[in-house]
């Protein structure tokens, strides 16, 4: 299996990301799909958390549904060094694409949409990946093309 972002419970922690608003008929179908994928098959607990929109014009905080990994999660790969994670990412792919693309899209999102956040773990994995793949060109100019 490849590596993906996994939320672990951390009462004092903070996670940056995107919240999706579902309305009307979307609610039941979305919750049913996510419940099967994340809770029944995936070994996650469902939690409500406070979400603070980055856009100050978006208003006050809202309650958001998140899925927190449990030790029973059969796909949880556990901690590893950034170098070991990068090496695993290079060799992993699935039905949604290559794990390299997943990592690079995630890191790009954080670099460009959350520039005030220094996610040391994520960015260390990104750097380890680049050191393992010296033929990759990674520059701001290349990403903008």
From TrEMBL:
The keyword Transferase applies. Keywords: Lyase, Transferase. It holds the Pfam family ChaC. It catalyses: glutathione = L-cysteinylglycine + 5-oxo-L-proline. It comes from the Eukaryota. One of its GO terms (biological process) is glutathione catabolic process. InterPro entries: ChaC (IPR006840), GGCT-like (IPR013024), GGCT-like_sf (IPR036568). One of its GO terms (molecular function) is transferase activity. It is an enzyme of class 4 (lyase). GO terms for cellular component: cytoplasm. PANTHER family: CATION TRANSPORT PROTEIN CHAC-RELATED (PTHR12192), GLUTATHIONE-SPECIFIC GAMMA-GLUTAMYLCYCLOTRANSFERASE 1 (PTHR12192:SF26). Belongs to the gamma-glutamylcyclotransferase family. ChaC subfamily. Catalyzes the cleavage of glutathione into 5-oxo-L-proline and a Cys-Gly dipeptide. Acts specifically on glutathione, but not on other gamma-glutamyl peptides. This is Gamma-glutamylcyclotransferase. It comes from Alectura lathami (Australian brush turkey). The gene is Chac1.
